[in-house]
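subagent[fold] <- orchestrator: predict structure for attached chain, return tokens only, no commentary.
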Amino acid sequence: MNNSHQETWRLAWPMILTNISVPLMGAVDTAILGHLDSAIYLGAVAIGSSILTFIFWAFGFLRMGTTSLVARAIGRADMDASTLLLLQSLLLAFILATLLFTLQGSFIPLALDLIGASPAVAALAESYCQIRIYSAPATLMTFALVGWFIGQQNTRAPLLIIVSLNALNIILDFVFIIGLKMNSDGAALATVIAEYGGLLLGLGLTWKTIRPQLAGQERKRLYRALGRYHQYAELLQVNRHLFVRTASLLFTFAFFTAQGARQGDETLAANALLFQLLLLISYGLDGFAHAAEAMIGKAVGAKSHTDFIAACKSTSFWALLTALLFSTAFALFETYLLAFFTSIQAIIDIAQGYYVFIIALPIVSVWGYQLDGIFIGAGKTKAMQNTMLFSVFAVFIPIWWILGDYNNLGLWLAFCAFMLSRGLLLGAVFLYFQHTKCWFDNRCERINPE
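subagent[fold] -> orchestrator:
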């Protein structure tokens, strides 16, 4: 195994475990709620978590943008810039979380109205959201911390943070849902407490790393920089593109959930079950995308085209191999996976009708995930934004509308087309950037003005 493959695995394996633990948290919620005596609790958490995932992940740029800029700073051997980026991202995360908490009374009822679930499910989902929104500061600040660690080429710290957070959440799920009979509200409360536990651990790990740089005159200089708007220019520019890109992606997920809800509580629950497997795919493949972000960012910061190409090849090779393993495992263990999530036969029957998409999606979607990592690391975020907008509004929505008579089948077909489009479009832009040799400068301004 050459050096680029070794570096890929050094960075990727902690992020794979980290990422898989995230849908595992949702999978435990789904499994526990799916074995209660009604589908409405599972449906409520599906809708409530979808709304808050849309809101929180819309600010996922706090992770991706921080990783991109910090990795390039590391490539330039600029540790002061790396520390300043951490402080800026944490401050920005806290401000945005405060804004979200202030506006919750407006967007939660509006989102529930747009989804249009049954009254029983909607009431439980609203209660779930009202509890879960208290985790906003912890969630957004943890995004920034994880992004900074990945940019620092340290993926073991995020592993410790996220696995600890999820382990605490699972324990609290059993306490609140099973022990205290709080059902969907218990799932929300467990997540809130776990998120703050993860934040405290992350801050502790970060302090050990940056403490030497926050001493004496250096600390005063960094604090003064936090109050200067122009110091945020690059962070805000990258984050603007990533915000639009991520919001478009999450719109697709929320739209998918809403259309499933309109077809009944059991279809909503079946789609929620399958989406847990879809999240397992995305988080698993994102491990190599995160490795690409760190390696590509460092190569771009050092202006090394050789390292850039080596990182692209090694991370993409292992991502494709992992996608093939996912598809194989899903095909072999269909019966066991569905039974794990629910004992309600009606939900299993519906899920089996669409399970073929779960088998196909790892191969279809791997290219989009992997190219995202490459483009984030290189800082070519406007290209990501534009290709995502096209995939949502020129591919997913039109195909869903054309196939409207096919109901849930049409919805899944449109979603697969959307995931395929992401990879194809980013692949075309990648080849264009390679042909014009503009990964390390701003000559490709028509596509990616910086």
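orchestrator: received. Logging for downstream: The chain has one domain: 3-436. Residues 3-436 form one domain.
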